């Protein structure tokens, strides 16, 4: 009796605290008080997936409110996600931190692996979108849950039921379209017996062209991760496969243990990204001869986003500030050619200093008592310098240099004010400036000319300078549009169905499990979630 009343007291106190903190919201107690066995009960139909995807958030929350303690873990996760999709990172942090604690207490139960992975992905983005330093720790916890889930699937111990009922931030909206796009190998497991025999894309000529552009810009047609797989295969107890992994010979130009499936995690810069600013990386990038540091997923997200903007009638040009070798701008020009072949008004603006990242004007920034940072690019030896003539050369190689491509040379605090003197309209602002000053300059000068419904994409949201600039600008201008993530891989972001692994011949046997790992190693490669975007509210 005493225990019951004490528990009731703590629940009541917690809800009163939440009401005080979130006075304009009613958060169902079942999202905060997570106790007992949360096996699917009365909501076993779809765990609120339909309501979530249709953005019927109030109905979803009312459903949890009515079910109370009988609500399943999956339904609670999906309801918590409704707050995150609306950009409420504070409430989302509270909800998913409570769920994560429950997951830790029940970590030995393989039936909750997929659901708890969704919990941690949602929690991680709630922290990251809210500019909370704890996101780094939660990101590592997320990787642990993802690897445990993949290991269980390889061992044949991942339960077959309910694999897709718990949604993460990457399972709805544009993010889901990227993660499951048919032009990629969307995390589907490969069995050794089929040896990837069928990899042809069945789609339109337009989509085939754009897919080939992505494969070419990221250098996929010429290389694999090669030596970078060796350590992974070695660590997985596959020394023979690791030894085979390499560029190969003239007679055998590739080695199967090295082969990388075409998926969102592919990028020519490899697993590490060659983007830490340390000396020597530029030489390695030059050796690899690629035109963009973006991943296949980044380019696909850009394509789907631009397609959506055009479909919704958002007016204006496309601009990238910080272009390096021009790959993203080349792809934007290809999108104009493929999507609007008969239209000649929209222009791709290519804005860059063409002298590399400039020395920072601000190094130590403290915007409030909670958030401060030291500009990470301040001591970079490698400044990502690429001259204008070389970028024009790259455009010519693709046959895409014409009057619809306009170069804007100079440092942004000088060049962008001159650009907007004619008051142009923009549908897309893509920022790849790395540093606080460059990101904030682009937002300050271009955002006022972004059309209602237009999109802002921040390529370097993993860098503290870019994060600080984004949050300073959004707060200064009272921007409440949800900040959403760009999917990057099948570890930190997208969640692939792994049920097919159980159907592979010999699944569960040690030798076959290792072979499965070789063919599906892309499922455990993490390049890190690094991009963010938001849509400018309609007036």
Detailed description of the structure:
The chain has 539 residues and is of the alpha/beta class. It has 19 helices and 9 strands. It has helices at residues 2-21, 49-53, 57-67, 73-85, 89-105, 113-129, 135-155, 173-179, 205-217, 227-235, 239-244, 281-288, 296-311, 327-339, 388-397, 412-419, 436-446, 464-476, 510-519; strands at 317-321, 348-352, 364-366, 372-374, 405-409, 426-431, 450-458, 484-485, 532-535. The strands form 2 sheets. It has a 7-stranded mixed sheet with strand order 5-2-1-6-7-9-8, sandwiched between helices. Strands 3-4 form a two-stranded antiparallel ribbon. Strand 1, helix 14 (327-339) and strand 2 (348-352) form a beta-alpha-beta unit. Helix 16 packs parallel to helix 17. It is globular, with a radius of gyration of 24 Å. The model is unreliable at 1-23 (pLDDT under 50).
Summarize the structure.
With 539 residues, this protein is an alpha/beta fold. It is built from 19 helices and 9 strands.
Entry keywords:
539 residues; alpha/beta; seven-stranded mixed beta sheet; 9 strands; disordered N terminus
